[in-house]
Amino acid sequence: MSITLYNLDASPPCRAVRIVARLIGVTLQLTPLNVLAGEQMSPEFLKLNPCHTVPTIIDDGFVLWESRAIMRYLVDMYAPNHSLYPKDVKRKATIEKLLDFDLGTLSQSVTDYFYSYLMFGKAKDPDKEQKMKKSLGFLESMLGDNMYLAGEKAFTIADISVMTTLTIPEAARYSLAEYPAVKSWYERVQRDISIVNDINKEGIKEFRRCLQIPNA
């Protein structure tokens, strides 16, 4: 039985879930949900997810939303002890820390800066940009000389989550050159998942299309 994913191609969290599923060989039945048209507010969808967010999955009647929870669930359920999210307690705690950093600090500052002017037509806010730069500076320090966020020679769901967050600056043509470790890591993860990175490439194009950002 395949898993239903309520999906928006332009959404970085949706793409993170799809990438992880593809990497562990899990089939997702994509159900497009046009949040720009308000489809997430339909009574049918609100019964599934009162927070009306994507991604949302249904797996044999089990409903789950929040991308980081979904990624953890998919690996634990269908690829236990995979290097993406291993059972080792300390390794897992490190991954959890990074996911929390993405959710509460990095992703929040990135979306707050870019969405305010790309989606809502406000002037670029230098204070929001500085907050985002502070978050990127944290990420730069956390990476140091490490190849991956959790510090070992294999990427994890934390790398996938943070990488998809940073597709927003890429889509907006915002340079990460000020953060060389972040830039190198971002490019490395993209190469490492090249076999499934069509998900990101198409998603970035769709993000630009939705927000009328030229692709070239």
What does this molecule look like?
The protein is globular and about 45 Å long. Helix 5 (126-143) packs across helix 8 (180-192). The chain is 55% helix and 8% strand. The chain folds into two domains: 3-79, 3-Layer(aba) Sandwich (Glutaredoxin); 89-211, Up-down Bundle (Glutathione S-transferase Yfyf (Class Pi), Chain A, domain 2), CATH 1.20.1050.10. The chain is α+β, with helices and mostly antiparallel strands. The protein has helices at 12-23, 43-48, 67-78, 89-118, 126-143, 157-165, 167-171, 180-192, 198-210; strands spanning 3-7, 28-32, 56-59, 62-65. It contains nine helices and four strands; from the N terminus they run E-H-E-H-E-E-H-H-H-H-H-H-H.
The computed structural class is alpha+beta
* Strand residue percentage: 5-15%
Q: How many extended strands?
A: 4
- Mean pLDDT, rounded to whole units? 95
Number of domains: 2
The CATH architecture of the largest domain can be named as Up-down Bundle
Q: How many helical elements?
A: 9
The span between the termini is 40 Å
Report low-confidence residues grouped into runs of 5 or more.
none
CATH topology tier name of the largest domain: Glutathione S-transferase Yfyf (Class Pi), Chain A, domain 2
Q: Can you write the helix and strand succession as a string?
A: EHEHEEHHHHHHH
What is the helical fraction, as a range of percent? 40-55%
**Main β-sheet, in a few words?**
4 strands, mixed
Radius of gyration: 17 Å
What is the overall shape?
Answer: globular
- Spatially, the strands of the biggest sheet line up as 2-1-3-4
Please give the CATH class of the largest domain: Mainly Alpha
